[in-house]
Amino acid sequence: MKLLIKNTLNIVCKILVLPLALPTRLEQWLLPSHAETVFGFCAQLVALLPGAPGMFMRRAFYCLTLDQCSDHCYIGFGTIFSHRQAIIKDHVYIGKYALIGSAHIEENSLIGSRTSIISGTGLHTLDPDGTWSSYSHEQLEMIKIERNVWVGEGAIIIANVAEGCMISAGAVVTNQTKPRVLMAGNPARFVKKLVQSDEAE
Q1: What is the residue-level pLDDT of the chain in tens, covering all 201 positions?
Q2: Which of 30, 41, 136, 153 ranks highest by number of CB atoms within 10 Å?
Q3: Radius of gyration of the chain (CA)
Q4: Residues 6+ away with beta carbon under 8 Å from 20
Q5: Nearest Cα to 34, choosing from 150, 137, 147, 156?
């Protein structure tokens, strides 16, 4: 019964966000692939919807506009996806005020509040005249967060995070991690290997 109610709410919310999702899709179909003005406006709008109804509406919007978004994820208040090139799998939790770029977040991963997932390190380049280039869509890199990852509050992720990792609060991940390790610091460094409870026995 609970699942039926949840699925019904998902359908209703997708209908309610169609006035936002349709212009976003039209922008994608009719304009160059990097055009995201309408998407950005709507993403900021749904980010401010409060409470449980707001979460359902946010998720519905992203289900209709991202490359892929599960009906069974949680997207907290204030969270914004800055690019539609994102994949969110089942049972992903994203806390409040997170900023998600181009990212592929696998099942059962927890993304803490105020986390930033940045679309790689090549978005800006230093020109010969000493000035930094403006943002280039062609340089987007999809950052992958594998299954069962826990990212602590305020972390900054610029590289792939392997399965089963824990990223401590405030850590800055600039290099790909190994599986099932704890990373902490700026830049993030190896702290210890994580052992599952059944392995420790």
Answers
A1: 888 888 999 999 999 999 999 999 999 999 876 789 999 999 999 999 999 999 999 999 999 999 999 999 999 999 999 999 999 999 999 999 999 999 999 999 999 999 999 987 766 677 788 787 776 676 788 999 999 999 999 999 999 999 999 999 999 999 999 999 999 999 999 999 998 765 554
A2: 153
A3: 18
A4: 42, 45, 46, 61
A5: 137
